[in-house]
Amino acid sequence: MTATLNSITGQFPFWRDAQMPAPLPTSDKTRVVVGCGTSYNLALSVAAALTAAGHRAIGVPAGEWFDRPEAYMPADAPVEVIALSRSGTTTETVRAAEASRARGVHVIGISCAPNSELEAASDTACVFDTHPEEGIVMTASASLMLLAGFALAGLSVDGALADRAEAALAALEASDTSEFHARNHVVFLGGGAHYGVALEGALKLMEMSICATQGFHPGEYRHGPVSLIDDGSAVVMLYHSETAAAEAELVKELQDKGAFVLGLGGPGDITIPLASDGDLAGAEALPALQLLGERHAVARGLDSTAPRHLTKVVVLS
Q: How far apart are CA 214 and CA 199, in angstroms?
C-alpha cells in the first residue's frame, strides 16, 4: 500500500479527534475565504456553505486577494479573511493574510502545521493534526480543512460524518472502476458547495495520474463542454440533495452520448450512496474522490507519491 493510499484510508481517526471551530456569528462583514490549489478549491466550497448558512462569503485565490483585492471587494467594504494552507507557509496565502491583517482585517487561519507563518499572521488559528504519511498530494489535510470551514458555517461535523465518509470510501473500494479508468476524458460535476469539491476531485485525479481533467457546475455543462462527450469520456457526478433530479437528467443525457458515469449520491453506471444531506455530502464524498485519483494513477502505472513537477509546498522568492 502506498503512502498516498495510507493517508486516504487512514484519515478518519484524525477526523474524529479534530477539535472543530465554533460556528461564526452573523455579521455585516463579508467572509473572504482564500487559498491556493487544493485550498482554493476548498475555499470555494466553504464560501458557498457559509453563504447558504446566511453569511456573506466569497472564495478568492490567495494570490489574487494579495495582488488585487479591489477586484473582489470594494476597498471600504467590511471583510473578515479565512485563510487555508496545509503547511501554513504557502507564500501567496501568508502574504494575503499578512496584508489583510495590516489593513486591520481579522484573519482566521486554518492549517495542519503548528507554529507556522500563517498562524503568526492570524488573529485566530485552527491547526489540525494530519496523517503522518501524507506527501505531496493533499488528502487527509484537505478533508480536515474542509470540515473546519463547514464547522464555521454551522454544519454538523461530528463522528457520524466520519462514519458516513468511511462507508462511502469502502463502497468505492468495493466497486469495479476498471471501465472508468479505461476512459481518457474525465469530467467532474458538482453544484453549490459541491462545486469546489468537484474541482478538488478533478485536481486529485490530475495530480496523481497526470491526466487532464475538467470541473463544471452541472447546469453549465450543457453550454458548450458537452460537445466533448463520447465513448472515451468518464464523468463523476457529485449529486446535491437539493438538485438531484435535474442532475440525474443530465447524467442520463451524458450516458446516452457515450459517457461512463460514477454517481456519488445518485444514479450512474456505478453508484456510491451518500447518507448526508445538503452541503455535508461533499465532505462525505471527498475521501472517495481522493481514492479515485489514486486508482486512476495505478491504472496508468504511475506512482501517486511523486506527481510530476509538484512539490509539497509552493514557496516563492
A: 8
Single out the residue of 201, 212, 207, 208 nearest to residue 287, CA to CA. Answer: 201
In 3D, which of 19, 65, 22 has the Cα closest to residue 40? 65
Q: Where among 117, 152, 187 does a domain terminate? A: 152
Angle (CA) 201 271 46, round 5°? 35
Cα-based angle 190, 247, 263 (whole degrees, multiple of 5): 70
| Domains identified in the chain, total number | 2
**Alpha helical stretches, state H, 103-213:** 117-120, 140-152, 159-173, 178-182, 194-209
Mean pLDDT of the chain: 94
Are the C-beta atoms of 283 and 49 separated by less than 8 Å? no
Range of the domain at 281: 159-299
Listed residue (75, 36, 89, 87) closest to 59, CA to CA: 36
Q: With 90 as the cut, is the pLDDT of residue 2 above it?
A: no
One domain for residues 148 and 212? no
Residue type, 157: V
Threshold 0.85, pTM exceeds: yes
Q: What is the pLDDT of residues 268-313, one digit of tens each?
A: 999 999 999 999 999 999 999 999 999 998 888 876 665 654 455 5
- CATH code of the domain covering residue 7: 3.40.50.10490
Q: Is residue 242 part of a domain?
A: yes
Tell me the Cα Rg of the chain.
19
pLDDT for the residue 50: 98
Q: Are residues 282 and 189 in the same domain?
A: yes
What Cα–Cα distance (Å) separates residue 136 from each residue in 2, 54, 203?
Answer: 13, 35, 13
Q: Are strands 124-127 and 56-61 parallel, antiparallel or unpaired?
A: unpaired
Q: Is 311 contained in some domain?
A: no
Maximum pairwise Cα distance, the chain: 55
Residue 261 sits in the same domain as residue 209: yes
Q: pLDDT tens-digit profile of 203-217?
A: 999 999 888 899 999
Query: Looking at this protein, which amino acid is placed at residue 181?
Result: H
